[in-house]
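Data deposition worksheet. Section B asks for the primary sequence of the deposited chain exactly as it was used as input, without tags or linkers unless they were present during the calculation. Section C holds the resulting structure in token form. Section D is free text for depositor observations; keep each observation to a single sentence. Incomplete worksheets are returned to the depositor.
Section A, Depositor: J.P.
Section B:
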Amino acid sequence: MPDYALERAAGGRVAGVDEAGRGPLAGPVLAAAVLFHAEPPLTLAMLLDDSKKLDAARREAAFGVLLQASRAGVLDYAIGAASTAEIGRLNILRATHLAMCRAVARLRTVPEVVLVDGNMPPPLDCAVRCVVKGDSLSLSIAAASILAKVTRDRAMTRLDARWPGYGFGRHAGYATAAHRSALERLGPCPHHRRGFAPVDQLVLL
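Section C:
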């Protein structure tokens, strides 16, 4: 389970950053930044973990508590995104970093240190520390992973209503068998990512 040790060791104003949606064939990539103003209470900390380890109901519950904590002044959070067009123009890594930079820039409190999940630092104007498997180690990164994942899943559900047939609300744009089958049957929509082989192969047919 994640804890607050990395934040305590860094000192000062520390934000955690994580992304959701690097792997899908469609939709934006989202990032969230979370800055706790003090070590979060145990009742909140116990809800937080890598979003991939939580089922949808637990993610939604944690998401709601994080929003309540934000309104209560326990934390600041912000969401940043990079669009499908930006992913096609920049590549997925640079677009992910763009989403992370946008999230950090939107925080009400300017961080002195940013803890980033993974091993590739985005180009931020403050100290950055990469933490491999950070969403399993840091409460700030775990909170960011939940906020990013739930926000993106909701966005893909809205996209499903506009582009029915692909099943975005079920698979969030990931390359499931059902999504690949729909792609072959319907062809790509404007929200499918250029530069991803399963999409580009169909565009070139």
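Section D:
The first helix runs from residue 5 to 10.
The chain is about 45% helix and 15% strand.
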